[in-house]
Each structure stands twice: as C-alpha cells, then as structure tokens.
Amino acid sequence: MNDIDAWVWWLVGAAALGIGLVVTAMPELGMLAAAGVAAAIAAALGGDLVVQVLVFVAVSVALVAVVRPIASRHRSQRPQHVSGIEALKGRQAVVLERVDASGGRIKLAGEVWSARALDTDRTYEVGQEVDVVDIEGATAIVM
C-alpha cells in the first residue's frame, strides 16, 4: 500500500463518490467527488496529508455552500414554458353546445372539448365566450 501515491487514493475515493452519485442521484456526492479530485491534485503537487485534507474540506464546503442553494432555487422554480393541460387553463373558449353543470361542448384551442360550468347555477349559451378554469380528465371546467 505504501507503493501507491496518495493522489491515486484520492482519485479512487473520487471515483467511488462519482459511482455513488450515479447510483443515488445525490448531487452532494458529485461535489465531494470534485473535492477528491482537487485533493488528488494537491497530493500530486507534493502537498502533505494535512494540506490534502484541508483542500478536500475547503473545496467540499465551498461547493456545497455555493452550488446547493443555486440548485435548490432552480429546482423550486416552475418551468416558464407550460404545456399540455396547464397551457389550457386560463384560456378563452367558445360555447358550441349549451354548457351547464351537467355538461356541454366548447371549442378550446381549435379542438372540441366536453365542458361543464364551475357554478352549478350558471348556464352558457351557444356562441358565448367562457374562461377555462380547470381541466378534469377530458372535461373543461368553465366560467
């Protein structure tokens, strides 16, 4: 074991952390793997064990402190481009067949949809414009 240089051990550790990253999808392991590579570079440049460990700790803390909040912020943001059902909510449609609490038909985004009124006491007549407030299955809820 003494024949193997310290930088090789750091690279082996970094590779193990990289494998852990792939298996668990925990980005923190990737940051620790990058810190292991930095410690390997410090070892290859002749730094003693204390310098190597300090480099590993410093790079680990820096990456976790900087990258993790950025990643969390990006993960919590909603996509700016909505598609599918979410893109239909809030759009206007035209009534094709009378719409009330029990049903009806509307033309929404160029397609004919089943629809029902959000307010059970409300009725929408043919040709009237309505707003889509929700989609439940294949039925648009309008008001």
Describe the structure.
With 143 residues, the protein is an alpha+beta fold. The chain has helices at residues 6-24, 27-44, 49-76, 85-88, and strands at residues 92-100, 103-108, 111-117, 129-136, 139-142. A 5-stranded mixed β-barrel has the order 1-2-3-5-4. Strand 4 (129-136) and strand 5 (139-142) form a beta hairpin.
How far the N terminus sits from the C terminus, by CA atoms, comes to 75 Å
Strand order of the largest sheet: 1-2-3-5-4
Q: Name the shape in a single word.
A: rod-shaped
Order of helices and strands: HHHHEEEEE
Largest sheet: 5 strands, mixed, barrel
Residue runs with pLDDT of under 50 for 5 or more positions: none
Mean pLDDT: 90
Strand content: 15-25%
Short descriptors:
five-stranded mixed beta barrel; rod-shaped; alpha+beta; 143 residues
Summarize the structure.
With 143 residues, the chain is α+β, with helices and mostly antiparallel strands.
Outline the secondary-structure elements.
Layout lengths: L5 H19 L2 H18 L4 H28 L8 H4 L3 E9 L2 E6 L2 E7 L11 E8 L2 E4 L1
Parallel strand pairs: 3-5
Antiparallel strand pairs: 1-2, 1-4, 2-3, 4-5
Helix pairs in contact: 1-2, 2-3
